[in-house]
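Obj: model holo form, ligand = zinc ion.
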Amino acid sequence: MESLKFCPLFSGSNGNSIFVSYGNTRILIDCGCSFKKIKETLHTIGEDICKLDAVFLTHSHTDHTSALPMILKNLDVKVCGSKGTLIELYPKICDYTDKIFQIGQNQSVGVLDLQVESFPVPHDACQTLGYNISNANRSISILTDVGFLAENLYSDVKGKDLVFLESNHDLNALENCSYPLHLKQRIRGDGGHLSNENAGKFATHLVNGGTKKIILGHLSGEANTTELAYETVKDVLKTNSITANRDVMLSVSERGALGETVLL
Ligand SMILES: [Zn+2]
Ligand SMILES: [Zn+2]
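Output (holo structure tokens):
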């Protein structure tokens, strides 16, 4: 039987794009790198950018949308985002309205062999979304750019086989890094990003709900490291009697690098 394929092409505050495919369906969640880089990286994992069916946008920030004008210009794809995202991106997308589709909160959209469902995420871009992607047997959640663990996330992201979860910063490293004060306040604020500690807390919820694989991502450049994210989340899981790589497969998508391909 064919597998659901998942691969973070890029992740981190410098660029985000995730590839998911099943059967005849190939989609991207976000496109925050150059068109050339996305094309080359897809080629590396044996995929052709021209065969993409759709691009789903979580929000308008540049690290999630920078390739959008080139994608709209060069590819025959659907681009889906919230009303707020599409309004914020309007100057970049207004010549391609035939390819643009609005998706509401908690709306489910079929794209050939895949089902994509949105849910609201608290972040400082208008109507930020996370996505659940599934076929008949398997399900994936993508949850990044999370200001805080809002109540709805506990029900919207539950019981998925694989979750790509933001683990953006270590609170001490953020406090002591060279970022200006206003940026530090934004990152740790309710419209900012999820700390390693809170990623651990949410990972505990996920494992208790049956999730078997968690990939940590969207790491900060100055206020985190791959090891720090992994160890912090592993330690929080341990305090909740969950052993990483026994009860759940835990890994980190390295900042700026091609992530692992997972077949479900
Ligand atoms: Zn981001
Ligand atoms: Zn953002």
